[in-house]
Write the structure tokens for this entry.
Amino acid sequence: MTATLLTGISELWTLDPALEDPQALPAGATEGQVIADAALVIDSGRIAWTGPGAQAPAADDQVDLGGRAVLPGWVDSHTHLVFAGDRSGEFEARMAGESYAAGGIAVTTDATRAASDEELLALLRRRIVEAARSGTTCLETKTGYGLTVDEEARAARLLAQLHAAGEIDEITYLGAHLVPAEYQGRAQEYVDLVAGPMLEAVRDAAGPALRWIDVFCEDGVFDPEQSARVLHAGIEAGLGLRVHGNQLGRTGGAQLACELGAASVDHLNHLDPSDIDALAGTASLPVAPGAAPGQLSVQQGPTVATVLPACDLSTRAPLAPARSLLDAGAQLAIASNCNPGTSYTSSMAFCVATAVLQMRLTLAEAVRAATRGGALALRRDDVGHLGVGARADLHVLDAPAAIHLAYRPGMPLTHAVWRRGKQII
Ligand SMILES: N=CN[C@@H](CCC(=O)O)C(=O)O
Ligand SMILES: [Zn+2]
């Protein structure tokens, strides 16, 4: 393998965990984690060296980035990319005053069931490229628009194919996204299916690439008891837990996630102080090595509070209290929640700008939440930072400083992207 030296970096956001006080509360970048006038060496797909440009070692190749800022690629820890069709009509009605209701999931489920494998794969690939074009280099995505044993297994199989090709990083089983029409009035039977034969079929289809199980814990969808049943089945299967919680009301998802040691609870539009305290109370739970290099154990660690700023805007929901969560000491992640119902964007740059402009995070806090925060929410330590040994996932901005992400919102600020050491944009 050849080593490549990148020079001309005006600001290098390494967010290097090795430079962090493990006792310190999670916050913005700390000293040493942003290097001015920097250089970086990539070797064998990994970061081999970072430091001041004046001290850069020799390498086989050299690329001058012309005074641009470099960040770790975004880690998008929450997307729903396996879908066909769109719901622009529902979105328009919402902008005219309708509220979001979970029932729209059934519309996408019908369209997804009707699409061929080839169509779904082509849609997935297009969405992955779209995400990469705005700097995303690590992606989680979910099943959840199949909602039968065969359709959930099909989604898992397609995702495993992309996982094997290195195009996505994490796969989540979300059979508990909605009780489908065929099971109306028989929710408990559907929960039994999700926790039993459907889970088995999805595990068989995805193989070891499947690490996560998720549930939409909300009034009218799955209540905390039903959600717990699904999540316990996931634990027995060796999967890590994720929860869609407290999106439409204060309906127990955040507390359940903390109680069961979920890696993340996402949405969080309706929290009271005791929910925030519960999340903060998990912040310093220790992590442990996982099954493969770069992975941490799915069973141990904080329950990350994942906020979804684009979704909050698109559903006109009260913004998740990211500022209060950080102030209380919770671990925070920002994700896109790209899906056709509530957040049809994969732009993490847009989410970061919104977190700064509307949720009152500092730029450093928002960048960290969209990189290291996402990695922790996926219980990984190989992405979300540019410390030596990390995956060489780089986001080069067409700007001299990362603050431009919020200062120039909506502008196409992604200049180049490296994923696993290869330039893809
Ligand atoms: N809230 C649940 N699931 C998705 C929305 C799915 C849809 O409406 O299609 C979300 O995370 O927002
Ligand atoms: Zn979601």
Summary: Residues 93 and 99 are 8 Å apart (CA to CA). The first helix runs from residue 88 to 95. The pocket of N-(iminomethyl)-L-glutamic acid (ligand 1) is lined by residues 104-105, 108, 216, 244, 247, 311, 337, 339-342 (CB under 6 Å).
